[in-house]
TrEMBL record, chain A:
Domain SKP1 component POZ: 23-85
Keywords recorded for this protein, A-Z: Ubl conjugation pathway
One Pfam family this sequence matches: Skp1_POZ
Keyword Translocase: no
Family as reported in the entry's similarity comment: Belongs to the SKP1 family.
Keyword Protein transport among record annotations: no
SMART domains attached to this UniProt entry: Skp1
Domain SKP1 component dimerisation: 130-166
GO biological process, one term: ubiquitin-dependent protein catabolic process
InterPro entries reported for this sequence: SKP1, SKP1-like, SKP1-like_dim_sf, SKP1/BTB/POZ_sf, Skp1_comp_dimer, Skp1_comp_POZ
Entry protein name: Skp1-related protein
From TrEMBL, chain B:
Classification via InterPro entries: F-box_dom
Taxonomic lineage from the root: Eukaryota, Metazoa, Ecdysozoa, Nematoda, Chromadorea
Protein name (Swiss-Prot/TrEMBL): F-box domain-containing protein
Top-rank lineage group of the source organism: Eukaryota
Source species: Caenorhabditis latens
Domain F-box, residue spans: 14-41
Length: 179, 340
């Protein structure tokens, strides 16, 4: 009768790998470090990293310049990505109304003035970070809540049909680049 | 731009990338989108691309309700103006849409007339804003079908998932006689919609088509949904009497849910009935498609040259009558040949 070999009992503990860090340089020369999981939230940055062949060994020696994003926005973006790096993957966008609750932490992060929010959206759009885009747009969408059409027009600066027509006429009247 | 210089916006929405504009609209509530759509033609087009929640439309005696997302609109018939209501808005507030836009997500209007034109016009207007919106549930009193069903026909019937037409048993004798030219041959319960197979004799050789409940209603066939909780043996006997005396010329289906304490033997007493018989019913093609509402059992009742089947599924509290040999005219709806 064979005896089963004694199997050693392994104590399973949460093992955290040494995080791979990447360096990012903003348009105004601020340097940020970001973990691999976090940087993957930006499709643009992750594509860049894979195309450049950056690895754990050489990542910190090869900072990635991001010309279109300033230090202030990059700081917000890095904070956001580090916060959400272990979140479940977002479902693909559809053209359905998206109903979700903006978490309080993110609402605080995005409590910035409208010009900053606008710049952050441009940066988020460039870096292709789906979740942050959703959250920023939710903040803008919430500005419309229970407003009258005229209030909406003022908040978003939507031109009337007459203004649209006038704009179109003046564009067609103005001389082209060669004229 | 016009002569008057506009103040800079609080948020430069128009300078956002197109994708971001769309994302912003996708985070808005239904009623906010309705209001936004009134700002300009361009904005209306942007809003029309958003897929919005399905709409429930309920037009029954005394009240009409439209619900979609956070949007809710109600009109109800009252004898006295409800001075103490906390949310009473004049009908014109909505009636002026889209010139002044929609200014609240909830309206309660009062009417002293049994007139729900406004409710239907709101449904139509909402559909103009969201051309692809679907009706999830449409409940309509049969009294209103003649007036409003043709207006609601702006919807593809396939977009309407569930149709319930209600009628009170007390008003059955007053139902208006309609033509009898469509021969019903089967029905199927498919994705919350009851589909009917019907022969259209208007075509030379009488081809078969599938219709939804609404299609049948609009073609003149009545689908009666009775309140099963109030249904008694006496009501069922009265129902059969109405049929036998020719007062239900347009009825295709009668259904009562939550029906309790019906004794079929009592109901059928004195009628010419037989148990369900496949051979006898063979001539009604399509019966193999019968739905969960219908099992090929129950009872067949003959009267003159007419034939009905009656089922009482006690465990499911369902009382179900199908009128065979009925013919209705397809007046308005295109036949739907492919149901998948």
């Amino acid at each position: 009768m064979s005896v089963e070999p004694e199997v050693p009992i392994v104590q399973v503990e949460e093992v955290r790998e040494n995080p791979v860090l990447y360096k990012i340089i903003s348009s105004d020369n601020h340097v940020f470090t970001i973990s691999e999981h976090a940087v993957k939230l930006s499709k643009t940055l992750w594509d860049l990293i894979t195309n450049l062949g950056l690895t754990a060994e050489n990542a910190l020696d090869n900072p990635i310049p991001v010309e279109n994003v300033n230090g202030k926005n990059m700081e917000t973006i890095v904070q956001f990505c580090e916060r959400h790096k272990y979140d479940e993957e977002e479902p693909e966008y559809t053209n359905y109304i998206r109903e979700f609750v903006l978490p309080e932490w993110d609402r605080q992060l995005l409590s910035i003035d409208n010009e900053e929010l606008f710049q952050l959206i441009l940066a988020t759009n460039y870096l292709d970070i789906q979740k942050l885009m959703d959250y920023c747009c939710r903040v803008i969408g919430d500005m419309a809540k229970d407003k009258t059409p005229e209030e909406l027009r003022i908040i978003y600066g939507i031109p009337t049909d007459a203004e649209d027509d006038a704009l179109e006429r003046s564009a067609s009247d103005s001389p082209g680049p060669s004229g | 731009m016009g002569d008057k210089q506009r103040k800079p916006p609080e948020f430069p929405f128009m300078e956002l990338p197109y994708v971001a504009m769309q994302y912003v609209l996708h985070t808005m509530d239904f009623s906010d989108l309705l209001r936004a759509s009134t700002l300009s033609k361009w904005m209306g087009e942007m809003v029309s691309k958003v897929k919005v929640p399905e709409m429930d439309v309920n037009i029954i005696s005394g009240s009409a309700t439209i619900k979609a997302g956070d949007f809710k609109w109600t009109i109800r018939k009252v004898d006295e103006p409800d001075w103490f209501g906390s949310q009473i808005f004049s009908k014109t507030e909505f009636g002026s849409y889209p010139v002044t836009g929609i200014t609240s997500s909830k309206w309660i209007s009062n009417t002293t007339e049994d007139n729900f034109d406004e409710a239907v016009s709101i449904v139509v207007k909402i559909r103009e804003v969201f051309p692809k919106i679907k009706i999830n549930k449409l409940k309509m009193d049969l009294n209103h079908v003649d007036n409003y069903a043709p207006i609601l026909d702006v919807f593809d019937v396939k977009q309407i998932k569930k149709v319930d037409m209600f009628i009170n048993i007390n008003v059955l004798p007053f139902m208006v006689e309609k033509t009898k030219n469509m021969k019903m041959q089967g029905l199927i319960h498919y994705k919350e919609v009851i589909w009917f197979m019907a022969e259209n004799p208007v075509e030379p050789h009488g081809s078969l088509h599938w219709f939804t409940t609404l299609g049948c209603i609009m073609s003149g066939m009545q689908v009666l949904k009775l309140d099963g909780e109030l249904l008694t043996n006496a009501d069922c006997i009265e129902f059969l009497r109405l049929w036998q005396s020719g007062e239900l010329p347009c009825c295709g289906i009668m259904k009562a849910e939550k029906a309790k304490n019906i004794n079929l033997m009592t109901v059928l007493k004195g009628t010419n009935w037989t148990p369900w018989n496949d051979a006898q019913m063979e001539k009604y093609r399509g019966i193999e498609c019968f739905s969960e509402y219908f099992e090929m059992k129950g009872f067949i009742v003959n009267w003159d040259d007419e034939i009905i089947s009656i089922q009482y599924l006690e465990a499911r509290q369902l009382f179900f009558v199908v009128f065979w040999d009925r013919r209705f005219v397809d007046r308005t709806l295109l036949p739907i040949k492919d149901i998948v």
